[in-house]
Write a structure and sequence with these properties.
The chain is an all-alpha fold. It has a domain of 130 residues: Serine Threonine Protein Phosphatase 5, Tetratricopeptide repeat, CATH 1.25.40. The chain is 76% helix and 0% strand.
């Protein structure tokens, strides 16, 4: 049950009194460090505050401006004072709530202090921004394993193996967790008296085989051996879903895309799983990327028919991407990164109205808001809405980290818009801003010279 302090903090967030809400949430966490709900609410309040102020939630100057709390967190970790480390981490995160390094330290400190729910919350926050972060995946695998949730632990370790195929801990964990799951099913059948003695022996053989299914796949031969081992574990039941998924992963390692797709589809037939659905979608897109790569090389070598085929494959790839991300957004409508991806693909298809509908929701994500605004500007420019386009390009540039890649792209598009609408003076002014920091950026010098000559 939420405390009165938590309720007051939640009410303060509704009133947009973020500083007061943040202090109340911090007081709550001082008394109850493992309160994951309060920790998530605290981070949401911090991110909303930054969003409304138009600030970067992970500024490059975070360590300099928050050096006191940064040093306090590092020193507390060095002296193994984990709860003090957690408090220092939170003080730092008040001014940089999406700082990956500090969120990871918070997760490690919470894990070491035995506050497992708090650790999970911290590592999951990292994954929201970077779903391939190996440290976060490893931490989540360890934590869920410690909590006895073997299914989730296995899922995170399998993800870690996809990111770091040679990671020994991940390979060991996948092997052990898979074997533990198979052994438990044998024991449950034995206790219930179900199945013949021969069936139970067969299941025990599957459990032993599962111990080897998590081996690291480094070559096509390793993949073949893994597939052979895994196929022996198939039982003709819904339990085959996980095995078919692993078989598909092994085929993917050896770049046998058709067989991988067939295995993933069999996994989905055995049991509906959004992770497998996403894997199928990603694989179909990758197969089209491979086709495009072959055709691009053929076109470059003088194949006259390859150019037309390449355009057709790219068109099919874009349409499939729109369909795939539309499906994901429908299933997970609150995930802003998915809306950003869908908006990006819709923009590329020149479906500007549909793209803007997605991007206007994606701008609420502090991590991708600036990129979403850049694309919104491009959509407005594509529709000939100059003033709205200018406004979005300027917002994107303001949210960028100075004249980084995003800042330069926003400025470049702003200059192009002025150039296209005949405002040569403003176009030159914007091109100059890029030239001052990167004279070789795209064709800025050529365009600047053309403006000066006209």
């Amino acid at each position: 049950m939420a405390s009165k302090r938590f309720a007051k903090a939640a009410e303060a967030v509704k009133r947009r009194n973020y500083d007061y809400a943040i202090e109340l949430f911090l007081q709550e966490l001082t008394l109850d460090p493992d309160n994951a709900e309060a920790r998530r609410a605290l981070r949401a309040a911090e991110l909303k505050k930054f969003q409304e102020q138009g600030k970067d939630p992970s500024p490059s100057t975070a360590v300099l401006t928050g050096f006191g709390s940064w040093f306090g967190a590092q020193f507390a970790a060095l002296t193994r004072n984990w709860e003090k480390c957690m408090l220092a981490c939170e003080q730092f995160l008040k001014n940089a709530p999406a700082h990956t390094g500090m969120l990871l330290l918070l997760g490690r400190a919470a894990q070491a202090a035995g506050h497992l729910n708090a650790a999970i919350a911290a590592f999951e926050e990292v994954r929201e921004n970077d779903n391939r972060n190996a440290t976060a995946l490893r931490g989540l695998g360890q934590l869920y394993r410690e909590l006895g949730d073997e299914a989730r632990a296995l899922r995170y370790y399998e993800e870690l193996r996809r990111v770091l195929p040679s990671d020994a801990e991940a390979a060991r964990a996948v092997r052990d967790l898979a074997a533990a799951g198979a052994t438990r099913k044998v024991e449950e059948r034995a206790k219930g008296g179900s199945g013949s003695f021969r069936d139970q022996l067969k299941s025990k053989d599957a459990a032993r085989a599962a111990e080897h299914s998590g081996r690291v796949i480094r070559s096509a031969a390793d993949a073949e051996a893994a597939i052979e081992r895994l196929e022996k574990q198939l039982t003709g039941t819904s339990d085959d879903a996980r095995v078919y998924k692993l078989i598909g992963d092994a085929y993917l390692k050896k770049k046998d895309f058709e067989s991988a797709l067939e295995s993933y589809e069999k996994s989905l037939e055995a049991r509906q799983d959004p992770v497998v659905e996403d894997a199928i979608g990603d694989l179909k897109l990758r197969m089209l990327d491979e086709q495009a790569g072959v055709l691009k090389r053929a076109a470059a070598s003088g194949d006259s028919g390859a150019r037309g085929k390449l355009a057709e494959v790219r068109k099919r790839r874009l349409q499939l991407a729109i369909e795939e991300y539309s499906r994901r957004v429908k299933l997970r409508p609150t995930e802003a990164p998915l809306r950003f991806q869908l908006g990006n693909y819709l923009y590329k298809a020149k479906r500007y109205d549909d793209a803007m509908a997605e991007l206007q929701k994606a701008v609420k994500d502090p991590r991708r808001g600036a990129q979403a605004r850049l694309l919104l500007g491009k959509c407005f420019a594509g529709k000939g809405m100059k003033e709205l386009a200018i406004k979005e390009f300027e917002r994107a540039r303001k949210a960028a980290r100075g004249m980084d890649d995003l800042g330069k792209e926003a400025t470049y598009n702003l200059a192009l818009l002025y150039e296209k609408t005949g405002d040569k003076a403003k176009a030159a002014e914007e091109f100059e801003k890029i030239i001052e920091v990167d004279i070789s950026y795209r064709d800025v010098m050529k365009r600047m010279e053309a403006l000066q000559a006209s």
